[in-house]
# Entry
Amino acid sequence: MVRSLWTAATGMIAQQTNLDTIANNLSNVNTTGYKTQVNEFKTLLYQTLQTRTTTANGAQKPTSAQVGLGTRNSAISSIFREGNLISSDSETSFAIDGKGFFAVRGEDGNTYYTRNGNLKFTLATNGNMLATTDGLPVLDTNGQPIIINNSYIMSRITVTKDGELCYPDERNNPQSMGRIIGVFQFNNPNGLAKLGDSLYEQTAASGQPINEATNPNVEKSAILQNFLEGSNVQVADEMVNMIVAQRAYELNSKAIIASDEMLQQANNLRR
# Structure
């Protein structure tokens, strides 16, 4: 009975983490480029009460008697399903149609990755720099910040599906500016470390970033100007998951109450 108390407690702790994940999904339902997360559970150790060969009369017993010791969260995985495309009036709003990520340079000088294409042109030393809303530089295919000379009007810059920046000539025909927004893929995006501000960090589990511009073996993503990728959170699914988590939490709490009542009855036997 004491074992059942601890087993049910692990279930309550696991479902609390599950509910935290669901709440985080719902809170990011309007976050650009957010990917929904799901909890994965696994059983804890099993305690052997009786081996396969032990019986009361010494006869052969084909199966053993084992009791589980509860559950725990094994991982919280992201579902990298593409979100809905949302139209935007901003000329620096970009959505990635495909598996790619934008690359940005953090304040610590390291490279991070994001699906959030809500970008802006900000003032830089030598002109205007394409950056995130937090001011982090967006990198091109060569891993360098995209800085445009002050002689250009930023609102007239267009971007092709290949990420190439163009500017209209005197006949209003778009001409290449020689800069391409970098798009990178990973063999295992679930291995990316999740950071704040919709950023991901490369890890050993994710593998090295694959530059779409230089690797012909990957399916190229398309950059869509005047669009943003919305969150892929399905509110109806999250509400159902919340109800399931709540019921599982209640069941574990009832198991604790039942174990407590049985212990109380056992203590009252000597009276």
Summary: Residues 85-229 form one domain. The longest strand covers residues 71-78. The chain has two domains: 2-80+234-270, 85-229. The mean pLDDT is 91.
